[in-house]
Every structure is written in C-alpha cells, then in structure tokens.
Amino acid sequence: MNKQTDQSELSRIIAQQTLLDERVVEAFIGQLFTEIEKSIIVDSHIKVDGLGLFRVIKSGDSHRILYLGNNTPIDKSVDLSHINREPINVGSNEENINKEIQSYTLSEEGITVNEQEDKSLNNNDVNPQDAADAIVIRNFLDSEKNGNSRIVSTPPTHHRKLNLVKTCIITLIVLALLGIGYMVLLGSSVKPKEKTSKTITFKELDNADSINYSRIIIPESDVSLQYIAKTYYGNDIYWPYIYEANKNIVNNQFIIQAGSITKVPKIAVDLVDMNNGNEASIAQALGDEIYKTTR
Amino acid sequence: MDESKLCDNIRNSLKAKGINISEKDVHNLYIATMSSIYSILDEGKTVDISDFGSFWRKKTEPASVTFFKPIERLLERINTKRK
C-alpha cells in the first residue's frame, strides 16, 4: 500500500538539504536513533521535537513502546549561511502540509498496519487500554508544555509534612484547652476537704455509770456534737442527746472543747436504727427546741 | 530530551567515531531529518529506520494519525536492559 522509504533514501534527501556528505548524514541518523533508544531504556521516555514521544510501558511480563506521533512539522529551517554555497530550500516539501492538523495518536508495538488504520478510522473500536495510555501521554505532554514535570504537579512532600505539623499543633492546642476547661470545671465542683473528714480521736475513760452512759470520752480536739453523734450513734441527727448529757461543757456553737470529759448517753437500740423515722423526727424536734432555747 | 542536548550527545558520539561536524551542521541535520521524515510521511510513505523501526501516517479527517512499529530486536534490547 505504502511506498517504503529506507534510511539510505532518507539520507540522500537530507544530504541534499544540508549539503553534507551522505555518509555523514547516514551516521547522524544512526546516532540520532541510538540516542533515542538510550533515553527510552534509561529514562523510559523521550520527547523528540518534530517526531513525537516514545514511552516504555509494561505490558504483562515485557515492555513495549508507546508512541505518540507529532503531527505538526518542526518550526525551524535549515540555516546554511555558514556554508559558502548556494543554500537549498528545505521547506519545499512542506508547502502542502496542512498546518491546522494538530493531533496525537497512539501506536503500539505488534499490531499490523491494517489493524492500526482500522482503529484510527473507527473510534468506537479503540482499545480502552490504548485510550487510557493516550490520556496518560497527553497529560505528560501538557505538563511538559507548561514547564511542569509530573513530580512538580503532585503535592510536594514538604507541603504534606507542613500540613501534618499544622494539624498536630492544632490538635495539641485543642487538647490543652479541653484539659484546662476540665480542670476549671473540676475545681469549681470539688469543694475543699471539710473538717468533717478530719478524724478526731477520743480518749475513753472508765465508765462508772454504765446504766445511763455508754461511754465517757475526752476529745483530743474541739469537736461538734454532731460529730460525736455521728461517731457513736451512726447519725448526727441524734446530737440533742449528747447535748442534754453535756450541757455544762457545750458552748453556744455546740462545740465541746478539747480535753472536756464528755458523756455519751445510752439510748435504746432501736433509736440508732437509721430506718426508724419516728425516733429521728423526735430527735429532730428536740434539736429544734434546743436551738430555740439557746438563742 | 531537549533538542540542543540531543544534538550535543550526537555530535560527541560522532566525534568519538571520527566524524567531526560542527554544532551548526548537527543542528541543520536534526532539522532536516525531522522535516524530511514529516514530508515523507505526509506523502503517505513509510519511513524505515534501520535497527529501530518504521513510521507511517494515515491521513484522516479531521486529524492525521502517525504510527510507529519498533523492530523486534529493539524490543528485545529494551526488555533485556530494563530487567
């Protein structure tokens, strides 16, 4: 279908244009494609101005070459001004070139000419893998055109690290604020330890009147009647009984001074029953009466 | 690869082989090679590069399509050296 143009014929054409020896041109072409091959192997890709992009891709267990042809002519012309000979117009063959055509297409190794032509003529038959490859190549070309490498187009590592550090700092600040808030709330809700939690010890004396008193005690520090009632009756509501037995040593604050001999009256066993609401209310009434009379 | 870098590499390699050509000539050869390949392909012909592969173009509307088929030995070299 197509007429073949081999490298020798190509060399002849180029030699005419450049006024150089055909053997030199032949060597140049050979070296040109050797360099292209080197780049394909080492860098996996090479973009040759005026020819297109070659890219190595992995296909199964082997590699193949993906080629994206450049369908626009090179926008430079041969300059023979340094040669003292009649220059030859290089651009004569370019006159019929449709400069509006600017498209990139895909070719893959191992597909026959007819198969590829059919593919190019019928877009519906385009292999999805090839289409995906073409998109990758186009993105690559776009990034090169914009002067950006693919590495540059992705977020740089140091930016990600910076974002991570920022996130950590913000998290620490939030945690610190939460901690401070918690401590403030805790501090406001927790009251200082009351004196009630302070253990007051009593020294017990021999009880000569065991009929009326269960114990004779001497507090080692000032103590309230409620505390004594709580200690010996199990409930501070029965403090009036302590009061009645120790009127002479109780001050107007219902405190018994340290070192005072204090009598703990014997009361009925059912009276110290916490569930005995009747006795508790009696004690309560008695307490109220004591308050009224002493104040 | 940048065109000037490619031309430098070619010039140095040719120099190592005993072929001394000026920077200007290498540049001219590069331009002439690309424009010639383009013109030949545009005429519907196939360009065969020895020990490398073949280029051809299918002219369609609205866009033309350029193809490349590497020779088997090129693929063998690539697969051997990249493993």
UniProtKB/TrEMBL annotation, chain A:
Keywords recorded for this protein, A-Z = Membrane, Transmembrane, Transmembrane helix
Residue ranges spanning the membrane: these are 164-185
List the protein's name. Answer: LysM domain-containing protein
Organism expressing this protein natively: Dysgonomonas alginatilytica
UniProtKB/TrEMBL annotation, chain B:
Q: Which InterPro entries match?
A: Hist_DNA-bd, IHF-like_DNA-bd_dom_sf
Under the GO molecular function aspect, what terms does this record hold? Answer: DNA binding; structural constituent of chromatin
Q: Which UniProt keywords apply?
A: DNA-binding
Q: Which Pfam families does UniProt cross-reference here? A: Bac_DNA_binding
Name the family.
Belongs to the bacterial histone-like protein family.
- What's the protein name? Nucleoid DNA-binding protein
What species was this sequence derived from? Dysgonomonas alginatilytica
Q: What is the lineage of its organism?
A: Bacteria, Pseudomonadati, Bacteroidota, Bacteroidia, Bacteroidales
